[in-house]
């Protein structure tokens, strides 16, 4: 039986659904990590993907197939900022950088933000590359 | 203890309920954020619940005849009520087909097989008709005076199709599905061939009443299947004889074009029967009628429970209406009343009046089918059905409305046009059917409610009947208005008559005879100077509305008229016109054949234009008067 840790603000299921080595429960994520996971989910959710919530999501997935250049990178940046402001109230966004990686046909995305209730700044970086 | 509310059906509400449930848990705090993993799981849960709820909702809807949407659900429920939805029906026509053979033809008889094609054309399409059955004729004298072959026959529109089914262990009682959705089920013929090696063929008959079927009866039954196709079923050796393995079911039928070929009159046969040089002539007895579409879902919904209530017996007048409606879908309204309600009472008879839908007619053949096949096998013994034609009473209205011109920007002609539409709709929807009455106050309310600017209205009601006239012979006429009439309002259209060898243009009017009571005398007045030239040519009873014209001869009608019209005004300022029957006050036996109940009266809006030559009055006139004060 999981016991609530009182000093934790946020907790969520780990979407890898791995088992805890000791308790056997589904592994959880806490605080900054749970918010980071949520941001990743939001960015990769497309419009009309969730039942009855057509406007939840972003066109980021589709934009990865656009020309890899600064124009697309700038557009991605704006979309991600908008997405965070709209759907993730736990985050106060400071900055989003999107750098086109021409040789790899990919974009490197770095987000600098604060999680509300957590004093330290957080940096979350990921590379988005079209796969098919 | 966490509680999960399970009353919601909507996705958002289900998800909200799950969130409330989660709030009472201690483990997770991220359920309420869109990106959270738990939120995704909630979406899946809510979607799944919603999916099942919708499925259950649709399923339960389809289980009841009132809420079922799919035709196969409605037909299936109707099947449990013992009701088979009517199929498309082919138009049928009656002709006499005569063949004058060439001199080289030596035969003394000729057969026209049921596979013979006759064609008939409308302006843009050609339809095929087939004889109902094989016809054989010997040599007779034709209409032309020549000797040849003559075939009075009924033609059925459509395309003859046949299907064969082999019986195996799994379908000894059927069903055998007819793979044509437009089949006319009344034309289905079923024959059974013993086996592929034994060509013996027996005919089997259609039954819709199992009380007439025992274990040896060669009966087949027809049902509508799940895909809207009709199925043929056979007995189980208890109710109806069962088929044997190896039997071949030979089914033939006509695939119908529905109502489209109705009213076609011009038939011809292209085939040669007796050799080159023959002359073929088709004499028309009745145009193609009776073609109709497959019964609609709404019609099944309406008819099936009522059919079930009749228990396949005709006892009450409602039973007659339901059974007749279940077989004919081109009926607008029906009135059925027992002879005891008639005036005068005629016991032992039930009177049926059928108003067909506009553009269709109920033929004598249809009436024969209704009497012989529908009513007779199900009716109480000693009750004779009698058909009565609907008769029309035309109601003319002079509508005058006052409207406040400060409340509207509509012109008076526009208001008149809208009032006219309201009146016409009232008649179409509420009056122009059997057993429907015209209520003055109801129409007045509708007229005043046409626009907010109308603050008062008055309606003058006039009614008339149209009498077909045989010109040049002395005849008596009796017209029944079935209600109280105003005195000295009767007037006819103009006509020519001969009195003592001299022809006059005259009209009929009434004079109230104070000495006799509520009886008036009919007189003939000359059109040119309104002088009475024929006194006492009949009577009008102002109480019962019976007008009797005795022994007049009409040479011709003035203007372009084809029927003589008798106009009267109903009694009172706000007169209703009712079609309920007159209650008889005495029980008397009579040999009268035709009933005089008013239940066969259809009230129709008179839309004719005024014609001074014929003295025809304007039917519907509307006047809008602008007034700034209310």
Give a brief description.
With 132 residues, chain A is an alpha+beta fold.
Question: Would you spell out the secondary-structure blueprint of this structure?
Answer:
The complex is a heterodimer of chains A (132) and B (630).
Chain A: E1 11-13, E2 28-30, H1 31-43, H2 60-63, H3 70-87, E3 91-101, E4 106-115, E5 121-129
Antiparallel strand pairs in A: 1-2, 3-4, 4-5
Chain B: H1 11-23, H2 37-62, H3 71-80, E1 92-100, E2 109-112, E3 118-121, E4 126-131, E5 135-141, E6 147-157, E7 159-166, E8 176-177, E9 183-195, E10 198-206, E11 219-224, E12 230-234, E13 248-255, E14 267-269, E15 279-289, H4 297-310, H5 317-327, E16 331-338, E17 349-356, H6 364-375, E18 384-387, E19 391-404, H7 412-431, H8 440-448, E20 454-468, E21 474-480, E22 491-492, E23 495-499, E24 502-513, E25 519-526, E26 532-541, E27 546-553, E28 556-557, E29 563-568, E30 601-605, E31 620-627
Parallel strand pairs in B: 10-11, 17-18, 19-30, 19-31
Antiparallel strand pairs in B: 1-6, 1-15, 2-5, 3-4, 3-14, 4-6, 5-6, 7-13, 8-12, 9-10, 9-13, 11-12, 16-17, 19-20, 20-29, 21-27, 22-29, 23-24, 23-28, 24-25, 25-26, 26-27
Helix pairs in contact in B: 1-2, 3-4, 4-5
């Amino acid at each position: 039986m999981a016991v609530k840790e009182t000093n934790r603000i946020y907790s969520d299921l780990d979407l890898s659904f791995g088992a805890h080595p000791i308790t056997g429960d589904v592994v959880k994520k806490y605080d900054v990590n749970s918010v980071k996971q949520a941001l990743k989910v939001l960015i990769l959710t497309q419009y009309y993907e969730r039942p009855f919530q057509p406007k939840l999501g972003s066109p980021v997935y589709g934009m990865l197939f656009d020309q890899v250049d600064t124009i697309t990178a700038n557009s991605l940046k704006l979309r991600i900022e908008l997405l965070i402001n709209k759907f993730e109230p736990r985050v106060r966004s400071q900055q989003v950088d999107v750098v086109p990686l021409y040789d790899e046909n990919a974009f490197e995305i770095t987000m600098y933000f604060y999680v509300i209730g957590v004093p330290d700044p957080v940096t979350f970086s990921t590379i988005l590359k079209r796969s098919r | 203890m966490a509680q999960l509310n399970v009353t919601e059906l909507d996705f958002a509400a289900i998800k909200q309920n799950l969130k409330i449930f989660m709030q009472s848990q201690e483990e997770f705090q991220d359920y309420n954020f869109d990106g959270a993993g738990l939120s995704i799981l909630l979406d899946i849960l809510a979607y799944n619940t919603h999916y099942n709820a919708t499925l259950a909702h649709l399923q339960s809807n389809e289980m009841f005849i009132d809420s079922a949407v799919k035709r196969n659900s409605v037909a299936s429920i109707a099947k449990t009520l013992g009701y088979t939805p009517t199929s498309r029906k082919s138009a049928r026509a009656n002709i006499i087909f005569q063949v004058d053979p060439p001199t080289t033809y030596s035969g003394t008889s000729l057969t026209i097989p049921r596979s013979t094609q006759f064609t008939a054309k409308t302006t843009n399409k050609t339809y095929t008709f087939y004889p109902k059955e094989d016809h054989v004729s010997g040599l007779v004298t034709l209409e032309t005076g020549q000797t040849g072959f003559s075939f009075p026959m009924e033609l059925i529109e459509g395309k003859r199709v046949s299907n064969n089914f082999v019986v195996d262990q799994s379908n000894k009682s059927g069903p055998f599905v007819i793979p044509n959705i437009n089949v006319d089920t009344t034309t289905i013929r079923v024959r059974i061939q013993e086996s592929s090696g034994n060509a013996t063929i027996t005919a089997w008959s259609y039954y819709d009443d199992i009380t007439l079927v025992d274990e040896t009866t060669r009966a087949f039954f027809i049902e509508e299947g799940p895909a809207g196709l009709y199925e043929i079923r056979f007995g189980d050796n208890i109710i109806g004889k069962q088929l044997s393995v190896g039997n071949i079911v030979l089914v033939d039928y006509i695939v119908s074009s529905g109502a489209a070929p109705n009213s076609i009159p011009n038939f011809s046969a292209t085939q040669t029967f007796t050799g080159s040089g023959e002359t073929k002539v088709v004499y028309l007895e009745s145009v193609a009628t009776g073609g109709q579409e497959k019964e609609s879902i709404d019609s099944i919904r309406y008819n099936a429970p009522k059919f079930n209530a009749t228990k396949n017996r005709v006892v009450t007048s409602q039973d007659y209406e339901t059974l007749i409606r279940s077989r004919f879908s081109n009926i607008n309204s029906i009135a059925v009343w027992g002879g005891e309600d008639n005036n005068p009472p005629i016991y032992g008879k039930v009177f049926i009046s059928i108003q067909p839908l506009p553009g269709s007619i109920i033929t004598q053949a249809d009436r024969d089918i209704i009497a012989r096949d529908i009513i007779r096998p199900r009716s109480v013994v000693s009750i004779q059905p009698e058909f009565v034609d609907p008769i029309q009473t035309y109601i003319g209205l002079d509508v005058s409305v006052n409207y406040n011109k400060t409340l509207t920007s509509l012109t008076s002609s526009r208001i008149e046009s809208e009032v006219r539409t309201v009146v016409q709709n009232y008649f179409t929807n509420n009056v122009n059917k059997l057993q429907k009455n015209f209520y003055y106050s109801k129409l007045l309310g509708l007229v005043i409610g046409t626009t907010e600017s109308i603050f008062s209205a008055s309606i003058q009601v006039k009614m008339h009947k149209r009498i077909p006239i045989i010109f040049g012979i002395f005849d008596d006429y009796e017209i029944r208005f079935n209600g109280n009439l105003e005195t000295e309002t009767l007037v006819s259209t103009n006509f020519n008559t001969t009195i003592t060898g001299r022809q006059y243009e005259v009209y009929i009017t009434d004079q109230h005879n104070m000495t006799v009571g509520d009886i008036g005398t009919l007189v003939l007045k000359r059109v040119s100077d309104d002088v009475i030239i024929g006194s006492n040519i009949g009577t009008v009873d102002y109480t019962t509305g019976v007008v009797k014209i005795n022994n007049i001869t009409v040479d011709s009608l003035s203007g372009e008229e084809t029927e003589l019209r008798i106009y009267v005004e109903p009694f009172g300022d706000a007169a209703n016109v009712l079609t309920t029957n007159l209650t008889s006050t005495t029980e008397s036996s009579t040999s009268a054949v035709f009933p005089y109940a008013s239940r066969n009266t259809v009230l129709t809006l008179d839309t004719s234009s005024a014609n001074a030559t014929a003295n025809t009055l304007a039917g519907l006139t509307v006047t809008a008067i602008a007034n700034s004060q209310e």
